[in-house]
Design brief:
By secondary structure, this protein is an alpha+beta fold. Helices cover 21% and strands 38% of the residues. The protein is globular, with a radius of gyration of 16 Å.
Length: 145
């Protein structure tokens, strides 16, 4: 059974900003002579790693809304620079936009069941009948759309 993760993208303003940050990390890895693999490091290793790598994704919360996801390719256990256990989520570099889903702030990451995950958007679905996506999501949340 597939399960996903949801995580706050702290300090990220929008999806293009997240893309620039991740492109910079890939460039730095190549400059250090490492494989150009996109890794997101976290302190705790998910206990449901097998379910995450069976089609799971990392859903990013940006400015109060889930906006984009990335497929989780692998979960690597390791040790950080301070000698403490850590985990690297190996991510597909493709950012897949999702329908907006409001999300309150939280720390760390949380599991997200497939039934609660927002749907992917088509590449052309930037607005809903002339209403910007974020406003449309807020109106839906309030029951007005």
């Amino acid at each position: 059974m597939t399960v996903h993760l949801i995580k706050m993208a702290v300090g990220v303003g929008d999806v293009p900003h997240l893309a620039r940050i991740q492109a910079g990390r890939l460039r730095q890895a190549r400059e250090r002579g490492e494989a150009a693999v996109l890794r997101h490091y976290t302190r705790h290793t998910p206990r449901r790693s097998a379910e995450l790598t069976d089609g799971g994704s990392l859903y990013w919360v940006i400015k109060g809304f889930v906006r984009v996801r990335q497929e989780i390719r692998a979960v690597e256990r390791g040790v950080n620079a301070e000698g403490r256990p850590s985990c690297a989520l190996v991510l597909d570099p493709d950012l897949v936009r999702t329908s907006l889903q409001a999300c309150r702030p939280f720390q760390g990451w949380r599991y997200l069941g497939a039934e609660n995950a927002p749907a992917d958007l088509s590449p052309l679905a930037e607005e809903t009948d002339g209403v910007p996506r974020e406003l449309a999501a807020e109106l839906r949340h309030l029951g007005l759309l």
